[in-house]
Amino acid sequence: MGTRxxxxxxPRKNRAGRRILVAGAGLATVGALVAAMPAGAAQQSAQGHGxxxxxRTVDVQLLSFNDLxxxxxxxxxxxxxxxxxxxxxxxxxxxxxxxxxxxxxLRQAREGNRYSVTAAAGDLIGASxxxxxxxxxxxxxxxxxxxxxxxxxxxxxxFDEGAKELARMQDGGCHPTAGCFVPGQxxxxxxxxxxxxxxxxxxTGKPLLDPYFIWEKxxxxxxxxxxxxxGTPNIxxxxxxxxLKFGDEVETINKYTKxxxxxxxxxxxxxxxxxxxxxxxSYNYDCDSPGPGxxxxxxxxxxxxxxxxxxxxxxxxxxxxxxxxxxxxPAGKPRLVTSASSYGKLYTxxxxxxxxxxxxxxxxxxDSANHVVTRDVPKAADMTKLIExxxxxxxxxxxxxQGYIAADINGRGSAAYEKPLGDVIADAQLEGLAPADKxxxxxxxxxxGGIRSDxxxxxxxxxxxxxxxxxxxxTVQPFTNMMNVVDLSGxxxxxxxxxQVSGSxxxxxxxxQVSKGLTYTLDMTKTGADRVVDGSVKLNGEAIDPAKxxxxxxxxxxxxxxxxxxxxxxxxxxxxxxxxxxLFNAYLAAHSSATSPLAVxxxxxxxxxx
Length: 610
Prior knowledge:
This protein is an alpha/beta fold and 610 residues long. The protein is 23% helix and 26% strand.
C-alpha cells in the first residue's frame, strides 16, 4: 500500500495504517528531504522502512478509471454496456459496471502486486443517479474511500455545486442546508486527494486544491499531477465556477513536472480530465494500428504531443470513451494515454516499470489494457451494504411512480443525432412553458449532454416493467436546472443551430434536441456551419425569420451560453420557470398511464444527410 496525505508533519487522515502524503503548493515536503539525500542514502532510508531484497527495477501496478458520475448501482440500458471486438471481427455487447463489481475486480487485480496505486481522472461525482445525487454525492465519496482510491484529478462535474461544495467533498462536514443525512454521523470527506493544478482563485492566483501528489512505498516514488479541461467554464453553470480561473492543461502539467523534478521525483503520471475520440467504439480495439496514436483524435491527442517528455503516462477522461494508445511525446518517444469509458464499466491496468537507480519509469516496459467490470463476479459485501443503507434512506422518494413507457426510450445509447428521449424532454419543456403565464414558449432546446441515461422498459426494481420511477427520471435529468424562457431573435436562433457544428463544437459536435414543430436539415457531407442547411429551419412549417423574435425555452445552463452556444446567451426578457426535472415528470404523468404508456417518438425533426 502506498503512503498518502498532506505533506506536513501531521498526516491528514489515517486509514488502515496508510499514511497519506500529498504535495500542497508552497508546502515543505517530505519528498524534498529525501531528494536532498545522496541517492544511496535515500535508498538506504527507504530500506529502513521495510524494503529488502530489491532488484534494480520494480513493477508498479497503476489501476485507473474515470467519469464514474456516482453510478453506484449497475447503469441501466445502453449506459451499462461496453462493446468488444471478437477475434472474427464481429462485436458483442457486454453488461458492465456497478460499484459492487468494480470493487471486486480492483481487489482481485491488486492480488499479488506488492506495489499498486489506484488513480482516477475526474467526474467521479456530479450528474449522478438519485442514489448518490439525492445526498449530494456523499455515498459516492464513501464508496471511493472503500475502493482504496489513492488520488484523482477534478473534472468539470466536480464543480456542479461550486467550489465550496467541492471543498466539503474533500474535507468533510455536513451539507450547509440539507444537514447530516445519517443521524449522528458527520460526513468525513475523501480519504484521497482531489488534484486541481490548473484551477486557481482569481483573487490570489493560488491553486484551489493541491496541484500534485507523491505516492511512495519503500523508496519507489511516483508523482501525480491533476488537471481538468481548460474549457470547464463553458460546460458548467457560471455559479459553479465563480471566482475561479482555469489554465492551459499543457502549460500547467509542464510547470508542475519541473516542480516535481526539483524534488527528485522523475516518475510522473498526469491525470487529465480531457479526452479524445477513438476510431472504434470497442474497448479492446488496437488504437495504435497502423501506427502510434493513429486511432485517436481530439483534444487529448494534442495535449499528449506537447506535455513534457518527463511525464511517463496520461490517464484521461471526459469523453466517456475507451482507449489505450501510445502517442509520441515531444521527444518522439511513445507514451501511454488511457481512458476507461465511464460509469465504472471498465478499469485500466497499467504496469509501470520503475528503475530504482534512475528513479524513472522504463518507458519501453510500460504495458496497459482496459478490463471489463463484468457482473459475473461476487459482489463486494461492503459495497452491497453501503448501497442498501443509502437505498433505504432514498426509497420513499426513489420508488414513487412518475409515468409509464411502452419500450426503451434511448437518450444516450442512440447513435443518431436526434435522440428519442431528447424529443420527449424538449416536448416536456415546451408544454410546461408554453402557457402565457408560464413564459409563452414557442419552442424548446435541450443540450444532449444533459440527458444522462436512457429510460429502460425492463424493471430494475419491484415497480414492474414499463414503470418510470422518480429515481429513474432523476437519473435522466439529475441537474435540476431551472428552466428559462427568453426572447431570442431568429438570427440568434439560426446562429445557435450553426454553433452545434462550428466554433468550439467543430471538433466534437453537439446537436441540440428540439421540441415538436421545429425542423431542419443537417448535411454531414459539408463542413462547419454549412452543415445546417440554409432555409431548412422551420417552426410549424414556416421558415425562421432572422428579424423576428421567438420565445425560446431552455435550461439555465444553455441560456447562459453553455456547451459552446454563445448565441443563446443573447436572450432577453427572461422568465424563470420550474425545474427541468419537474417538467419532465409532469409530462410523463400527463401523457402516460398503465393502460396507455408513452410510445417511443418517431425522431423525425432533424433530417440528416450523410
